[in-house]
Amino acid sequence: MTVAANPVPRAPWRLWRSPYLWLATIHLLGDAVVVLTSGLLVLLTVAVAILAWPLAYVGIPLTVGANRFVYYVAGWELARARITRGQQIQPLVPPLPTGSRIADARQAVTDQGLWRQFLYYVLLLPLAMTWIVLIVVAWSVPPVLIALPAYYSNYAAAQAQLGPFVIDTVTRASVVAAIAALFLLLASPFLIRAASALDAELARSLLGRSETGALAERVSQLVTSRQQVVDSVEAERRRMERDLHDGAQQRLVSLAMTLGRAKNRLGDKEPAVRTLIEEAHSEAMQAIAEIRDLTRGLHPPVLTDRGLDAALSAVAARSPVPVRLSVDVQPRPSLTIESIAYFVVTEALANVAKHAEAAQAEVRVTRVGDVLRVEVRDDGQGGADPSGGSGLRGLTDRVAGVDGRLTVDSPPGGGTTLIAEVPCG
Prior knowledge:
Blueprint: H1 12-15, H2 19-52, H3 56-85, H4 101-110, H5 112-146, H6 148-151, E1 160-162, E2 165-167, H7 170-207, H8 211-266, H9 271-298, H10 301-306, H11 308-318, E3 323-328, H12 335-356, E4 361-368, E5 371-378, H13 390-400, E6 405-409, E7 416-423
Helix pairs in contact: 2-3, 2-5, 2-7, 3-4, 3-5, 3-7, 5-7, 8-9, 11-12, 12-13
């Protein structure tokens, strides 16, 4: 984002104490030097870019290099504006390589940023000449006129003339000096301020990215970073599922088998010990079932191996409410999107089984273009409130994490329809 140049304070008593007044003057004087150095370099570089393009293998690298050099030179100008005016400008970005030498050369010549920067130096030439005249008027002429009463007597006989006015008396010389002093104190700083503001606007509009472009780029970066976070969280879920399935669950299975063998070998001996073993065996089996349900909710292996159709078929088969399932998601979306769709369906069917008192449910998962649509319907009692329970709020947050949208239509006595739409491009 572009930050405007720091202005000279508006209050008259602060103008002369402001460093920006003098730094802006230095910057405006430097424009003439920039035109004669950087401006000529850019002119020659653009000429090389245009003339070298048709020279095939020799000219193409020259054209691309010339394009990059113009951006490099413009960076000097941005640094100068930052030092003298405190103006922060987001620089233009050169075109990215396409992988084709000819396409890169064509892109370098037709690059809009190249011509914007070239136009900056073209317009800076007349402005630099104007700034020199303005600085002379603002800072050089008033001191000369202020001192007029001191040296007026040397020219009194010749009747000194200031434009249409003849200075033939000390009184008139003193009036001119007073006017010049007021001009120096009040008008000169504002002239410099206005010139600096115009110069800053020229640099901002031609050398910097637009506010919209900068914001769009920032939004794109945030979307990318958020997607990376979502993907990393999903990868962590899959890792936890593998660790639970291959680690803790297998150990519990081994423990349950060992307890079962101990119970069989003990037979009818030691009834108290046998009771303890039976309780431990029952707890182990219950822990195995809970871990299996937990890992199935995190990310079942069948989802990774065979996709949504197979994974949701297993969920529908386990549901205590009869479920009609329809899945059409070709081409297959990413694992992150599949996991979200799986989570939505399993949570929705769990809510149907717990709260809806439904006789049947229907699940439809379809992909239309770059949108995955998940629809879960039931014929239960309705009345579901997305703001009233953590389950539906969790679904909404999970879907919103990837720019998706979840809606719930649940009139009392009219069943519930849950629709989740997730981008999967």
